[in-house]
Design goal:
This protein has 280 residues and is mainly α. Helices cover 76% and strands 0% of the residues.
């Protein structure tokens, strides 16, 4: 029996090691090439750093100067933080109402949110762009509202699953103590939703920070509100030519904040996903 367990553990370890290498290799590849000259990246992309191909942090400096990276980071932070906070507030309250108010309207709303999860973005992007034009939403506030709409489906689904597991007796006790529905939600229910709230925040932050298509369609390449992915597009020259070294450097700078955020909060993901899958 012990031999079988050892063999199983070894197999699991090997599989996990292979998966770890597969997931970490692209990041290591980008990091390695961000310190090389563009000619060496084209000719020897998998070669290790040497005195011949090493250019130091010049790729990073050139990328920051050519693209206005810090301005793009500012708008990426504003849009990402604003969108995540609005998604957390709006979808948690919506999920709470849908779960606690048993009616045809709440049921229809719940399934509408679930259905929105399977609708491809490409089906609505032209209509969305036209609507953004009409409502003057080609700015960070408009982007935040649009991200609330696109992120609401999964977030409401996860919050609803968790709210179903919260005992009604806790809310009844709060109301007996004099809390109104809003006070009950913010003082009693929302703190209990912390694992799912952190998971929703992480998933939406990673998506919004790295998203290119929606900011490109809404703010475009000529607006002052360009995010990091849109700014990186500026590196493409005529006939599709671009400096791979500079692009690699910018990619490292752009993924670094979200990697730090994910590493800090990743312990909550599994807990929140499992909790959000609870059926009432």
């Amino acid at each position: 029996m012990e031999t079988k367990n050892k063999i199983r553990n070894i197999i699991i370890f090997i599989v996990l090691l292979i998966l770890a290498v597969a997931f970490l290799f692209p990041i290591a590849f980008v990091l390695l090439n961000s310190f090389k000259g563009k000619l060496f990246i084209a000719n020897e992309p998998f070669a290790f750093l040497s005195s011949e191909n090493f250019v130091g942090i010049q790729n990073y400096i050139d990328g920051i100067e050519q693209t206005g990276f810090f301005t793009a980071m500012k708008w990426s932070l504003v849009i990402t933080v604003g969108s995540v906070l609005l998604i957390l507030l709006g979808t948690s309250m919506t999920a709470y109402w849908i779960t606690r108010v048993k009616s045809k309207v709440s049921s229809v709303l719940y399934y509408a949110f679930v259905f929105s999860m399977i609708v491809p973005f490409q089906m609505v992007m032209f209509t969305m762009t036209s609507l953004a034009d009409t409502l003057k939403m080609r700015n960070p506030i408009g982007m935040i509202i649009l991200y609330l709409g696109f992120g609401a489906g999964l977030s409401v689904f996860m919050f609803s699953g968790f709210v179903k597991s919260v005992p009604l007796e806790i809310e009844e006790a709060a109301m007996i103590d004099g809390c109104n529905p809003l006070q009950t939600f913010f003082r009693v229910v929302f703190p209990i939703l912390k694992p799912t709230a952190v998971t929703v925040a992480i998933l939406n932050a990673m998506w919004i920070w790295n998203d290119y298509l929606l900011p490109y369609l809404v703010v475009g390449l000529t607006s002052e509100y360009k995010t990091i992915p849109v700014r990186v597009q500026y590196l493409l020259g005529s006939h599709g030519s671009f400096d791979m070294g500079i692009m690699m450097g910018l990619l490292v700078l752009s993924i670094l904040p979200i990697i730090i955020f994910y590493a800090f909060c990743q312990k909550f993901i599994i807990e929140g996903v499992v909790a959000g899958a609870v059926k009432g």
